[in-house]
Each structure stands twice: as C-alpha cells, then as structure tokens.
Design brief:
284 residues, three-stranded antiparallel sheet, 3 helices, Sushi/SCR/CCP_sf, HYR_dom, repeat
C-alpha cells in the first residue's frame, strides 16, 4: 500500500500537516472505486423506467447494449395482467418496440386496446383498465321483489320473494355469470291460492198454515282472498234468497273467483216442511 502511494510520485513527510499517510490514501481510493462501481450499476435505470435491480452480469451486458433505447414505465393492470414480448432481450419487457397483450381476471372486462406497444416517446400506445362485469338490472316481479348481495355485479346472488297469497314461479335464486347474464329462469309471482267462501248452514222452514210453500231468506256469502281481499262478485246456482220454496230439499250453490281465476265453491240446503194433520178415522 505504501509502495502504491509512492509509485504515483508523491512524497510524504510527517512534518507536513496537509499531507495524508499512504494507508489512508489507499483506503480512500478503494472506497471511491467501490462507490463508482455501485453507482454505475444502479444508474442504469431511471425513475419510472420499470428497471429492476441487476441480478447477473448477462443483464448488465444486455442493458449496456441497449442503454440508448427508450424505455416505457411498467404496465400495471388492476384486476388483470400483461403478457409482453420484447424485440431486444427477454429481460426487458418495457423497452422500445415491446408489445403487450392485456388480459383481465374472470369477472372483469377490458376497456381500451387489447395490445399495447412501447413507443419512442417512452409512452405506451394506449390506456387500459379492467372493469368489473355487470349483468342487466333484474325486473321487479309484480306482487313480489328480490334482494341481492352485490347489486348486479359479477358473482352477485339475488333471491326473489312474493307477497302473501302469491307463489314463486321460476328460480328463486339467480347469479350474475361471467357472460354478463343471469343464471336460471326469470321469476314471477303467481296467485295460485284459491279464495275462501263460507255458506250458511241448512235453512229449515215450516210452511205457514194452509200453504205448501215458504219464503226463505239468508245473507249472500262473501268471498275472501289473501291476495285480493274481499270478493263480492259471487255466482249463485239455485233460487236467490227471498224466494218461495216448495216442500222438500233445495240445493243452493255459490262460487267465487279471484282475479287470477282461482275459484272456490260452497253449498247448503234449503228445507221446507208442511205440517199436516193426521188421517181421520170414520166413527164406528
């Protein structure tokens, strides 16, 4: 180390306060050399170039070969990825002329060009992003509705429900698929439940003296339906209330329909009796 210092034609005197010992000068030279080597290795990339730390000598050689070639910033696709091909070396996926194919994850669709090229202005030939796929908005079924986990976006599950008195027709649960269509059949709420109607009990009437008929009254029954409420439009089969009925049994029938066409029927009897005296026997 001392010899190296003197070979450069420098002399050292302990009496000169400004001069440095040969060992210190040698160590300083070594440190400067190390810094120059390290600086040269890390100065190959610049901010935004996408250049990663050098890992082998072959990479150093390749970069020195194409150090004058413009570089684009790295491509980062949220919810997607890029497959790039460089015309220079396989180590450089964002050098001038590099072509990248953009792909999105399942459930996402690409907005922008599918192929990007690194241009001489250090910019890619377009802008891209992956957007979550969305299915068409579901139609609200009459007399029902639906609840969804994540709206109409990909993989969201929606469950249909119906109002009281209605039954679900179709798939109760549907899911937004990758093709932006809902799974299953469209659901609807159908009134399958028949209405209710209650007829009066048997109506018995005794004819007035010297008559063979009797006038019978009753209240016309009402129909009730879970979906439609009270139904007053009923169909009568037989004589209406307030009619004169002859002696014997008479069948009365009422039928009620709801708006969906479901029907319900009830029946009862009107029974008329005539009082007669017993047979007279001739005296002996």
């Amino acid at each position: 180390e001392y010899m190296g210092a003197f070979h450069f034609g420098e002399s050292w005197s302990s009496g000169n306060p400004t001069s440095q010992p040969p060992r210190i000068m040698a160590e300083t030279s070594v440190c400067l050399a190390v810094l120059l080597v390290v600086g040269s290795r890390f100065s190959l990339g610049y901010q935004g170039s996408g250049y990663s730390p050098i890992e082998d000598d072959e990479d150093v050689y390749a970069h020195n070969t194409y150090k004058e070639t413009p570089w684009c910033s790295p491509i980062k696709v949220k919810y997607g990825y890029a497959n790039c091909r460089s015309p220079q070396e396989r180590y450089y996926r964002n050098v001038l002329g590099t072509t990248c194919d953009i792909h999105c994850q399942k459930g996402y669709e690409l907005h922008g060009p599918q192929h990007l090229i690194c241009q001489s202005n250090k910019r890619w030939s377009g802008k891209v992003f992956c957007k979550q796929k969305r299915c068409p908005t579901l139609s609200m079924p009459p007399n029902g509705g639906f609840k969804c986990v994540d709206g109409a976006y990909f993989n969201s599950r929606c469950e249909y429900y119906c109002s009281p008195g209605y039954q679900l027709k179709g798939d109760r649960i549907v899911q937004c698929m990758d093709n932006k269509a809902w799974s299953g059949r469209p659901a609807s709420c159908v009134d399958m439940e028949p209405p209710r109607i209650q007829c009066p009990s048997v109506k018995e009437k005794i004819a007035e003296p010297n008559k063979l008929t009797s006038r019978v009254f009753w209240d016309t029954p009402e129909g009730r339906d879970t979906a439609d409420g009270i139904l007053t439009d009923v169909v009568l089969k037989g004589l209406p209330p307030g009619s004169y009925f002859s002696e014997g049994d008479h069948k009365i029938q009422y039928t009620v329909y709801d708006r969906a066409g479901n029907k319900k029927t009830c029946k009862f009897l009107v029974r008329v009796r005539v009082r007669r005296c017993g047979k007279l026997n001739a005296p002996d």
